[in-house]
Amino acid sequence: MQPLVKNNILKEKIIGLSRENREDIIGYDTPDITKIREQALSKFVDLGFPDQSVEEWRNTNLDNALSYDYNLAFHPVKKITNIESIFKCNVPHLNTLLLPLLNGWHVFMGEALKTLEDGTIVGSFAHAIKKYPEIIGRHFSKYSGAGKNGLEALNTAIAQDGIFIYVPEGVEVKSPIQIVNIIRPESNIFVQARNLIILGKNSKLTLVHCDDSYNLLPGFSNTVTEVFIGENAKLNHNKLQNINNDSTIINSTYFHQKSNSKLLYNAISLNGGLIRNNTYVKLNGEGCETNILGLYLMDKTQHIDNYTYIDHVKPNCNSKKLFKGILDEKATGVFNGHVHVRRDAQNTNAVQKNQNILLTDTAKIDTKPFLEIYADDVKCSHGATVGQLNTEALFYIRSRGIEERNAELLLMYAFAAEVINHISIDALRDRIDDMVKKRLRGELSVCDQCVLHCSSQEQPVQFDIDMSLLKTNN
Amino acid sequence: MNAKKNSIIDEVTQGEYKYGFVTDIETEVAPKGLNEDIIRFISTKKEEPEFMLDFRLKAFARWQKMKMPDWAHLNIPAIDFQDIIYYAAPKKKKELESLDEVDPELLKTFEKLGISLEEQKRLSGVAVDAIIDSVSVKTTFSDTLAELGIIFCSFSEALRNHPDLVKKYVGSVVPYSDNYFAALNSAVFSDGSFCYIPKGVKCPIELSTYFRINAANTGQFERTLIIADEGSYVSYMEGCTAPMRDENQLHAAVVEIIALKDAEVKYSTVQNWYPGSKEGKGGIYNFVTKRGICKGANSKISWTQVETGSAVTWKYPSCILAGDNSVSEFYSVAVTNNHQQADTGTKMIHIGKNTKSTIISKGISAGFSNNTYRGLVRIAKSAINSRNYSQCDSLLLGDKCGAHTFPYINALNRSSIVEHEATTSKISEDQLFYCNQRGIDPENAIGLIVNGYAKEVLNKLPMEFAVEAQKLLSISLEGSVG
């Protein structure tokens, strides 16, 4: 029971700090938002941090992550001297509009909110509350509610800033938008970021979302992102996670899809002390399509927990989930996929798949692919496998003169490629491809800076054999 | 067409429960309620050795500290455990020596159930232990079996004649502290079956237990203990029925199986407790803890179950694969209709090396019912080169029911392979059309398809049961179109 007490100390501290800093927290709010925050805070007071007695959290222990004496960032970092080098993105030929987040605050030069040529608004969430109270009022906390657990409630209660993106009706944003969320603690820090992304009817957006840590101090990043995808809109969301081994990332993303909208979501997790991704998708219109993919490559004592909940509310929707993971050394992984088909959601197709490779006897995986179905005219399936590299395939490759280590790498890469191949931005896919190869060779660790400039080489990473010949369309 | 479909569904949902009669047998009952005195009363009544009473009291103390589990996908109204009679026995005047001495009313009951305790059974080669209101009334064939050294008797008899065996194994697979209902059972169980197969003996006939709840307001708490010594084999069957009553009745049983080195136990259940009326009134609450342990190397335990009855089913026949190279199988067909709720599945705990388990589960839901598969496959670090394959299919008949799959997989070593597959669908129009086109009417076509769907499991049942199970399936589901 010791850790529980510790969690309570942190909980009390955070509640105390939130009350002390109330003026700062609600500084940008409309009265409605303040009201939502107050409800959320009392929910956090009730629930506290999620512990393993809650079914959804039984395989993820936050005790260690919560045992540090964290500080909260109620104010943005004042003096940032090397902003360009921190956020400089080194993926060759990747042209994105960069939206940096440092300790939960949007870092901007000039205006806090920019309106692009096509009418898209991007920038600081805090400033957006002030400038566009009507839009925020319509969407903020409407998809997440106060939050499904204590952490999300805490975020709703005290998160001040984050990224706001508004794509107006009919607009197809040309270049991808990139959110880079960096924790750079001066001391141990507990960061809340709140993002709100709205896609109007018939619009289209490609998003790259990176979570990185800047130095090796423990940090706790608790992000909630709400995404509204309007009728017939398309979102391509790529997520990359590469943080230091003492840091914790809790990412909760709520997607709300309207009729005929499309979502492609890729979550690639390469490093992190403890990563928990909560992904909730509500298919609240007919003819929606959603495709959720995940790849996790963990080693040391890292822990990854992917929780996904797809709620089929309306008929004629398709959802697909594919999560693949390779766990090395003492890494632990959790996959918890839930597909809920409601009574009226006839003609639903839902596929759910989780595949894992354990490389050592000390690695561990818990997988829970759930189906909860109340409509009869459905086709739902799920599959989960845990295994190791196929010995016959290994033998086949080795019999062709490729040494064992390379043969293993090749097979692991092929395993991961099924997810990587879904990344639609070529430059990003190539880079992630390289990173995965490096990661598999054990060469990729967390750099001092953003994961995307862990190497500036233009030269693609190769195994000792020419991988490019092996790349096939999936 | 739709109207016709509906009428077929109605027909199905109105399927009568044909075992719903009450037998007028004099019973001896304990007062309602649960306390230490009742437990002492039961223990005294059964002339139990001291260790059994201790076991019961420890279990009771533990149970009082426990809470009824609420994690299952079930909606159970609060149960008043003080409003239940924990002991009801057909009044026995003296020890029965032959069938002639059995109460004729009782014999009639069994005849109605299609279980004759008489000579004809010799032909079908089944030894039956019949249990009414949790007291074993007659075990047939004991003498034949005794020649082989097989002990097959009621639990109380085993306590009297073989206390050492009971003491050694009771609670060794399902400890009294295991869960809420196992603790309750451990405290108040009234009787059950006991079976011991000695070293190297292959039991030549199927052993069978028939359970019947008869008296009103009673709960049935029986306990089965099966021990298969080295190199032995036994096939064991279990069937259950109950009268139709408006109130809910409680059934909380415990089954423990121990398979030693090279032994094989095959356990088959056809569970057909009263499922409640079609409005969801009455019916049995079936909370059963069944677990086997493959203790020795190369041992094997297989569970086969056909679940069609009970208002609420909470049941996870499990297996601990402790011995190296041990094998376990779980085959299940669970049918829910009307307002039935089932949360059932299995647990496979791999501990020994090269252990293998197979799970095949077929769920069929109709009416307003909810049918859940919940299963755990755990590969411990020591279970090198283990293998599991699970397949869970759900079939939905009608748009008011639910079918859910909640598998849990924990893998802790790199040399094992775990595979899980599940699908949920309804009977496809194509299949139906194909049958119709060949002159098979919709009702028979569905019977055919459902039977084909469940075949994989039904095939695993012993002959006598397979016939009964198929009939049960057709009673519950014949002709329903989603």
Using only C-alpha atoms, the radius of gyration of chain A works out to: 22 Å
Integer average pLDDT of chain B = 82
The major sheet of chain A is characterized as: 11 strands, mixed
What proportion of the residues of chain A is helical, as a percent range?
A: 10-25%
Low-confidence stretches of chain B: 1-14, 93-98, 118-125
Structural domains of chain A: how many:
2
Helicity range of chain B: 25-40%
Distance between the termini of chain A: 48 Å
Shape of chain B: globular
Total beta-strand segments of chain A: 21
Our count of helices of chain B gives 12
- The tally of helices of chain A reads 10
Bin the strand percentage of chain A. 35-45%
Q: Tally of extended strands of chain B?
A: 24
Largest sheet of chain B: 10 strands, mixed
Whole-number count of domains of chain B: 1
Query: What is the residue-mean pLDDT of chain A, rounded to a whole number?
Result: 86
What structural class do you assign from the helix and strand content of chain B?
alpha/beta
Largest interface: A-B, 34 and 37 residues
Task: State the low-pLDDT regions of chain A, or none.
Answer: 446-459
How would you write the strand order of the largest sheet of chain B? 4-3-7-9-12-14-17-20-22-24
Verbal overview:
The complex is a heterodimer of chains A (474) and B (482). Residues 446-459 of chain A have low confidence and may be disordered. Chain A is α/β, with parallel strands linked by helices and 474 residues long. Chain A has helices spanning 2-20, 22-25, 31-47, 83-87, 125-131, 133-139, 150-158, 391-399, 404-420, 426-440, and strands at residues 71-72, 97-102, 105-106, 113-115, 121-124, 163-167, 177-183, 189-199, 204-213, 219-229, 234-242, 248-257, 262-271, 274-283, 289-298, 303-312, 318-327, 332-341, 348-358, 364-373, 378-387. The longest helix of chain A has 19 residues, at 2-20. Chain B has helices spanning 2-13, 36-45, 50-65, 104-112, 120-124, 142-147, 155-161, 163-169, 180-188, 429-437, 442-458, 463-477; strands at 27-29, 88-90, 126-132, 135-139, 151-154, 193-197, 206-212, 223-228, 233-241, 248-251, 254-259, 264-271, 283-294, 300-307, 312-315, 318-321, 327-336, 341-344, 347-350, 356-366, 370-379, 387-397, 402-411, 417-425. In chain B, helix 7 packs across helix 8 (163-169) and helix 10 packs across helix 11 (442-458). The relative contact order of chain B is 0.11. In chain B, strands 4-3-7-9-12-14-17-20-22-24 form a ten-stranded mixed β-sheet. In chain B, strands 13-15-18-21-19-16 form a six-stranded parallel beta barrel. Chain B has a two-stranded antiparallel ribbon with strand order 1-2. With 482 residues, chain B is α/β, with parallel strands linked by helices. Chain B contains twelve helices and 24 strands. The longest helix of chain B is centred in the last third of the chain and has 17 residues, at 442-458. Chain A binds chain B through residues 55, 343, 346, 356, 358-361, 363-388, and chain B through 71, 73, 379, 381, 394, 396-426, 482.
